[in-house]
Structure formats: C-alpha cells, structure tokens
Design goal:
Structural class: alpha/beta
Oligomer: single chain
Number of strands: 10
Strand order of the largest sheet: 5-4-3-6-7-10-8-9
Largest sheet: 8 strands, mixed
Helix content: 25-40%
Distance between the termini: 33 Å
C-alpha cells in the first residue's frame, strides 16, 4: 500500500490544521463527545434533491449535522436504493459508517472488514458495475495524497477509469464539496469535469440547504460561514462510449 501524508498521527494533525483550521482541533472532538446530547435536540429538516424531499442526516460519526454529510448521505442512500439488487461499487469507504450496506467498497487507505485496499487506478475487477458511487472522496485525489502529477489530471483519470467499469446504462455518481480543492473547482468552473448532469446544493443555514446554480455554489468558501463544505456538487456520468 502506498504512503499517505496523514498515515502518521503527527502528519494527520498537520494535515487537519492545514485543511480545516486549528480551531477544529478542539471543536470537532467537542461535537463528537456531545453528539448524544446534540442530535436529539436538532430540528428535523429536509432538503430537495431531484424534486424529492429528503431528510437531513444526523449521526455522531464525523458529526454529519455540522458538515456536508447531512445531505451527501441521504443522496447516496437514494442512489443505492435505486440500484437495489444491482452491482454497486463505492470508491471511498463512507456509507458503511452510516448505512446497512452490502455493496463492494474500494478504499486505498482505510482498512476494515470487506474493504478492498487498492487504488482505483490499479483496480481490475472481473465484473462491471451498474452504479459506482463516491462520497466526498474525489476532491482528495492528487491533493491529499502523495501522488505525482496535477490534481485535476488525476481526478480526470480516476473518472475515466470508473466510467470504464460501468455496465451499459450504468451510472457514476460523485458528491463533491466545493471550495476544498482549487484544481477541482477550476475544472468545474471551466466545464472540464465532463459530467452528464450536475446538481448544486448550497448551505443557507445551520440546518438548511437549497439547490443553486453552479456560479452560486462555486462562490462559496469552504469552512465559511458554516463548518466544512458550504456547497456540494452531485455529478452524474454515464459509461464510456463504445
């Protein structure tokens, strides 16, 4: 397995401060510790995705109520349910922390039962997938690892590889927090991500998200005014042309 800049405890702290700010070193543990008290007090809230109302997701792990996971997990669950009984691959081990899942999970660094520890660039399964899903993972490619090359190029390569693993009529779905990786934001602004469909959600309140256009989403800062992602892109791709 390749090295990673936050494999060590000290390296992880340095990375965390650089990406999220020193204050989060104290605020994140507090949110996690008080989660059992905080979550029951949160108002039930919904957001709209593809003309359907979905509930915000509250969970202690990675304090979803305070982050973009509040909308990403329900969206991921929506796609998993749409492809129930089909072949599903998740790139990045995210939904198993929250949902009762049985699909294939690929994660280069995170170890755990059933997780395939391979880089997507080296993954050569014998089957093709009807759905490939990735939650808040692609923004880290070439940006939070030690891979050589430009992040945007690495992201494009990973997207192409995933599309090549789809069945005819299959779908690749990525949720991408904006304002985190400048190279990714530039790709999106320049229309170079190559997706077939894009939906943008902006956080407008502590427990409020709404659909906006690309310009409004890309104008959001990461970590301001709310912690972590203040805008998310849901990008959908079909398979590669024959």
């Amino acid at each position: 397995m390749g090295s990673h800049l936050y494999n060590s405890r000290l390296g992880k702290v340095a990375w965390f401060v650089r990406r999220f700010g020193a204050a989060e070193l104290f605020l994140k543990p507090l949110r996690c510790a008080f989660a059992p008290l905080i979550i029951p007090c949160l108002a039930r809230a919904e957001f709209v995705f593809e003309d359907k109302s979905l509930p915000l997701f509250y969970h202690r792990y990675n304090m979803t109520w305070a982050t973009e996971r509040a909308v990403e997990v329900p969206i991921a669950q929506e796609f998993i349910e749409r492809f129930a009984g089909k072949r599903v691959l998740e790139v990045g081990n995210v939904t198993p922390h929250y949902l009762d899942t049985a699909h294939t999970v690929l994660d280069k660094y995170e170890r755990g039962p059933g997780i395939i520890n391979e880089d997507i660039a080296d993954y050569s399964p014998t089957e093709r997938f009807d759905l490939i899903l990735s939650v808040s993972t692609f923004e880290h490619i070439g940006y939070d690892d030690e891979a050589n090359g430009e992040s945007g190029e690495k992201i494009s390569q990973a997207i192409t590889i995933c599309r090549g693993l789809l069945t005819a009529g299959g779908q690749l779905v990525l949720t991408l927090p904006l304002g985190y990786n400048p190279a990714l934001d530039l790709m999106i602004a320049d229309g170079k991500l190559g997706c077939d469909r894009a939906i943008f959600l902006k956080r407008t309140g502590r427990l409020a998200w709404q659909t906006v256009d690309a310009g409004a989403a890309l104008a959001c800062e990461y970590g301001r005014p709310f912690p972590y992602g203040n805008a998310v892109m849901i990008a959908q791709f079909g398979g590669l042309p024959e």
